[in-house]
Amino acid sequence: MKYFEIRSDLPEDENRIYGIVIYNDKKDEYIVELPEDLTYEEAPILLDREIQRGYRTVGPEVARLWIEQRVVPSDRQNIYSILKKAKLDEYDEFELLKIADGRCAQDDYYLKPIPANSMPIDIVQRLQKRIRDYVLLPDLMILVFFENGETKLCDLTELQELYFWIKYLTISDNYYYSIHLITCGYGIAWDERRQISCEELYDIGRSQEVNYEMFKTFVDQRTISTSDICESLNCSRQNINDLIKRDRLHPIKNLERTKLFLKADIDKHLEK
């Protein structure tokens, strides 16, 4: 994970943070966190729409649009000379973003790299409402486990007026259950166009105790064996055992010939 502050070149704004860009280099995915005291009028164009909606987190789709405005496009006429000057063998959006500090001609913003522990406290607290794990249930229901310890049952049909595509999700079981977690637990997604944020789920969810059927579904959907991890990570069992010894992976059950892990923990390991 890479972290950047959004700053301004204007002298009067030199101490102002306009947002935090979080980049997941494993998934090539961006999200942007906006400070609680940032107004709609102050926010960078495109990012301001989330404030208008009442949210402070900008999801991958809009975040990438904002990032793309700050990077030389791959179809630029003189792109090869630009890559040569940047000492790049091929087009790399993120490397070009870093080299230019995220600057563009349309505004005065730039990106400043920071360590993860330098994020503003209001954003760190907001991350506690991110999704830790989930269980997708039939009939457009999803059980969500949040980082703050809350568990909520969410009826996705409540978001149909906002996202017309929700009613079509169950047409194919293969597609319906292809759901995955977005970077940093920001939300859930089926593809780049079909995403729901953690804040939206938190708002529509109702507190729920986990019953036996939900528990069985969770075990089926959200646990993974050693052999499955080896296949997905393209590594050996020896590598997995080494990660366990170094406290990087944590099995939840040791069986005679395998171990069981939470898929969410594997995803977090891949994000590091």
Distance between the termini: 6 Å
In sequence order, what are the helices and strands, one letter per element?
EEEHEHHHEHEEEHEEEHEHEHHEEH
Order of strands in the sheet with most strands: 4-3-2-1-5
Q: Which term fits the overall shape?
A: globular
Total strands: 15
Unreliable sequence segments: none
Mean pLDDT: 89
Q: How much beta, percentage-wise?
A: 15-25%
Q: Helix content range of the residues, please?
A: 25-40%
* Helix segment tally: 11
Going by helix content, strand content and strand pairing, the class is alpha+beta
Quaternary structure type = single chain
Rg result: 21 Å
Q: How many domains, as an integer?
A: 3
The biggest beta sheet reads: 5 strands, antiparallel
